[in-house]
Specification:
Layout (H helix, E strand, L loop, with lengths): L1 H29 L4 E3 L6 E3 L3 H10 L1 H21 L5 H4 L2 H4 L1 H21 L4 H35 L7 H6 L3 H27 L1
Antiparallel strand pairs: 1-2
């Protein structure tokens, strides 16, 4: 009986965390809350990937993948509802949805492997590396998929010559990538530590 109650409590808790993180992902994607503008910096620091990474680390690959799906579907909706030079690329789920699902999956398996290798006392290190890999999955997946499917149109949309190639196409996204990695590590790691402590109490 106690085991059943424990499993039920865990399921309710897991569903609640997935729901909260999915809601945050939607809010971050569809509102300005997902973008931090720092005076003097030529980049927008985005938060949309953060709930996916946290969910993948704390609740597993399926949960992380589901939160990533919500992020991706929100991004797909934005592509249709908010016209921009690059919006047509995000109307393809292979660009807007698939890489976002992989964020949570990669974050989970990276964390699980590192946690086994380094031990539970190295949670900040394991979570930090997992956040880095999850963010990299997002950037490489989205930008790489755009280039793979729409190289000529994408280079034109960014005002780049066709000779720029893959490296040239990635270059304009490099500052945003660095900012997203820093955001994921600096905000994601403390969040993982705090939630882990709350779950133990």
């Amino acid at each position: 009986m106690n085991n059943e109650k424990t499993k039920s409590a865990l399921s309710v808790r897991k569903i609640a965390i997935i729901g909260i993180l999915s809601s945050l992902s939607i809010v971050f994607t569809l509102t300005p809350l997902g973008y931090l503008l720092i005076p003097g910096l030529p980049v927008q620091i985005t938060l949309m990937h953060l709930p996916v990474i946290i969910g993948g680390i704390l609740e597993g690959a399926v949960a992380g993948g589901f939160i990533g799906l919500i992020f991706g579907l929100s991004s797909l909706y934005m592509a249709y509802s908010t016209p921009s030079p690059i919006a047509p690329f995000f109307m393809n789920p292979l660009v807007s949805v698939l890489p976002r699902i992989l964020i949570g999956i990669v974050s989970h398996y990276a964390y699980r492997g590192l946690d086994k290798a380094l031990g539970s006392k190295r949670v900040p290190v394991s979570a930090g590396i997992s956040a880095f890999l999850g963010t990299t999955t997002n950037t490489v997946g989205v930008v790489g998929m755009i280039y793979l499917l729409y190289a000529k149109q994408a280079l034109s949309a960014l005002g780049l010559p066709e000779s720029a190639g893959l490296i040239g196409f990635f270059a304009p996204f490099s500052l945003n990538y660095v900012s997203e990695v820093l955001t994921a590590v600096l905000l994601g790691v403390p969040a993982v530590i705090v939630i882990r402590k709350m779950r133990k109490n």
